[in-house]
């Protein structure tokens, strides 16, 4: 059983919120009473999710946003504050995967695209969230890294570079903002049963049996388990947790 949280009167922002871990986390924030701002590039999916939340009595808005574009991210945060007056929590989750590539053959445009979303997108999101939280003197941010931010794997140089970078951003910003009442942490998901992983399986970029075997718990993770970790890190229960890169990986990185 997951703990329950009371986030009434608080505002949560989630990027990459139209599917997978972002969608489930946004719903969890709403279920805990938060007003939720959902951001994604997929406008149609975003609209459907927001409609479902509001029809169930939750306070939620959707904002189409490409996190690789700083102007769009700045507008996203402004929209959140215009709608709800503040920003208390953020899950910077938007990210993409890249097909396995020999490091000597990796195209520069692929490297740039992966890092524009996975690393620059987290940097930009955190930057503009902090502008608002700095004014308030409070807030909690969770950045989405990956087990790929803690280890290396053949064929994944660009992706793992981006996820290692997220941890560096998190730790440095966490030290800077902890004295100002703002906690910043990262989570490092293992292989989670999301549409991204389903797509990788369909393309032959990942083998299900191997993915399961690599996680000592003996199964894929569920998006709800990621959401539970994010909400805990944003809650008073994690009030002394600052600058961590928390593996949520079924034991993968414990080997």
TrEMBL record:
Enzyme class, top EC level, equals: oxidoreductase
Q: Which Pfam families match?
A: adh_short_C2 (PF13561)
Q: Which InterPro entries match?
A: KR_dom, NAD(P)-bd_dom_sf, SDR_fam
Tell me the superkingdom of the source: Bacteria
Q: Which UniProt keywords apply?
A: NAD, Oxidoreductase
Domain Ketoreductase positions = 10-190
- Per the UniProt entry, the Enzyme Commission number(s) are 1.1.1.47
What GO molecular-function term can you cite, just one? glucose 1-dehydrogenase [NAD(P)+] activity
The UniProt similarity line reads:
Belongs to the short-chain dehydrogenases/reductases (SDR) family.
The cross-references to PANTHER family, in alphabetical order and at most eight, read: DEHYDROGENASES, SHORT CHAIN, ESTRADIOL 17-BETA-DEHYDROGENASE 8-RELATED
Put simply, this protein is called: Glucose 1-dehydrogenase
């Amino acid at each position: 059983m997951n703990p329950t949280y009371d986030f009434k009167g608080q505002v949560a922002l989630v990027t990459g919120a139209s599917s997978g871990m972002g969608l489930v986390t946004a719903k969890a924030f709403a279920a805990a009473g938060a007003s939720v701002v959902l951001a994604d590039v997929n406008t149609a999916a975003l609209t459907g999710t927001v409609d479902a939340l509001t029809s169930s009595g939750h306070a939620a808005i959707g904002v189409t946003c490409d996190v690789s574009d700083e102007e769009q991210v700045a507008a996203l945060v402004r929209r959140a504050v215009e709608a709800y007056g503040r920003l208390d929590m953020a899950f910077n989750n938007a990210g993409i995967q890249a097909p396995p590539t020999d490091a000597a053959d990796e195209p520069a445009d692929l490297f740039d695209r992966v890092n524009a979303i996975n690393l620059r997108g987290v940097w930009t999101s955190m930057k503009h969230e902090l502008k608002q939280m700095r004014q308030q003197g409070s807030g909690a941010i969770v950045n989405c890294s990956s087990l790929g931010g803690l280890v290396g794997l053949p064929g994944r140089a660009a992706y793992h570079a981006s996820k290692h970078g997220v941890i560096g951003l998190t730790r440095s910003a966490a030290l800077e903002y902890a004295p100002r009442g703002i906690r910043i942490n990262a989570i490092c998901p293992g292989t989670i049963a999301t549409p991204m992983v389903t797509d990788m399986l369909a393309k032959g970029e990942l083998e299900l049996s191997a993915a399961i075997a690599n996680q000592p718990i003996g199964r894929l993770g569920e998006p709800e388990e990621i959401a539970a970790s994010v909400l805990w890190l944003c809650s008073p229960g994690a009030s002394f947790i600052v600058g961590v890169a928390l593996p949520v990986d079924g034991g993968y990185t414990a080997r």
